[in-house]
Amino acid sequence: PEFDLAVRGGTLVTATDTFPADLGIRDGRIAAIGARITDAARTLDASGLLVLPGGIDSHVHIAQASGPGIVMADDFASATRAAAAGGNTCVMPFALQPRGASLREATHAYRALAEGQCHIDVAIHLIVSDPTPAVLGQELPALIAEGYTSFKVFMTYDDLVLNDRQILDVFDLARREGARVMVHAEGYDAIRYMTEKLEKAGETRPFGHALSRPQVVEREAAHRAISHAELVDLPIVIVHVSGEQAMEQIAWGRERGLKIHAETCPQYLTLTADHMKGLGSDDPMEGAKYVCSPPPREAANQAAIWRGIQTGLFDVVSSDHCPFRYDDPAGKLNPKGRTSFRWVPNGIPGIETRLPILFSEGVSAGRISLNRFVELTATNHAKLYGLYPRKGSIGIGFDADLTLWDPNRRETIRQANLHHGADYTPWEGFSVTGWPVTTIARGAIVAENGRVVGPLGHGQVIDRAVSP
Ligand code: URP
Ligand code: ZN
Ligand code: ZN
């Protein structure tokens, strides 16, 4: 046969077009798009389904060191299994440089954890926590040349925070090397001040986490990052934007002609700070299940984030999947966690639920078009991080990374049905319309009807060119 696989009778959706067509796949790539493709070793019937570019989640945390005694709930096998079941064909986790250690060694050790352990492709970002002269002068330029072309810097967290001079130096290096920088915009000193004040006042519940990081903390850091980016003349991505106030800073930067990109996440569209109060549970720590940074805001803020999605302020919607088990001393309830919100590990699982939530609340609810959905969940991720035109769309020569999507299927999100390593989902009982039926990664079926069928090791760790 001419093709290894034919996908027949579906409606293809890209960031710009929606049209009925068959697909012919050969050697893991899209080899033909046409009216009637029949000469294939295997045929999938996609009638009644949408054929979307596979989801790319450019912000996930997998097997990342998270402090003494705390263990992230997913390794590469479980994270990519959950991602595939949720309609994704590529995820981008972070290799973290522990302070005082070599970024190069940390990155190569992290990559070794991934090799042979992935159901879908993985592309690795870096986290720069210690920009020493050796890191800026030798290690980072060498890693960028090896294909690690993007990295994240943090403006908070004891073990990760960079001061303004360090941020400027990292930005400067990225400018010279053409690398992509992601910024975690929350101000360290303001959070420390608020945290100590709250603890003195006896406010140690998980809800204290939300009080310790109000929108102004995010807004101030976003403004500072944008100003530094202007000084260095560097495009940046402000990640996990949670609030209207940080959005205003991004709009301000763009009005000045700066290239400021922005990411948001489903939690800022569907969860609120009140979730950290535990929602009527008897368990005083229940709210820890929703502790992530930045924290979800008040309900009215969700409409502002939707407006940002509709108007183009946001380029991408990622999960910021950062899974910890709840009922586990190595997770949300680590022993110190019982005394203050300060010790609850930050992050929530969401790698498998990102696409259904955004589709349901976005497309099914009439807020965004199918094409905008594809742009926000696949195409723009590929373009921002150097995966385009290999991934991120449906076209001749692209990797055959596809999700067959049933736009009418109703499902209720249940932990019991998810594939991640966490023991809960923040969206337990959340109803959605629209569901991924089949995930095809580089031409192979990796997930079908909630079952992951592709072999571990099908996914590769892929290197990237610098983004144009
Ligand atoms: O709470 C979160 N988001 N934890 C993950 C780390 C990060 O800052 O993205
Ligand atoms: Zn972050
Ligand atoms: Zn993150």
UniProtKB/TrEMBL annotation:
It holds the Pfam family Amidohydro_1. Keywords: Hydrolase, Metal-binding. One of its GO terms (molecular function) is dihydropyrimidinase activity. The keyword Hydrolase applies. This is Dihydropyrimidinase. SUPFAM superfamilies: Composite domain of metallo-dependent hydrolases (SSF51338), Metallo-dependent hydrolases (SSF51556). Its cofactor is Zn(2+). Gene3D superfamilies: Metal-dependent hydrolases (3.20.20.140), Urease, subunit C, domain 1 (2.30.40.10). It is an enzyme of class 3 (hydrolase). It comes from the Bacteria. InterPro entries: Amidohydro-rel, Hydantoinase/dihydroPyrase, Metal-dep_hydrolase_composite, Metal_Hydrolase, Metallo-dep_Hydrolases_sf. Belongs to the metallo-dependent hydrolases superfamily. Hydantoinase/dihydropyrimidinase family. Residues 50-446 form the Amidohydrolase-related domain.
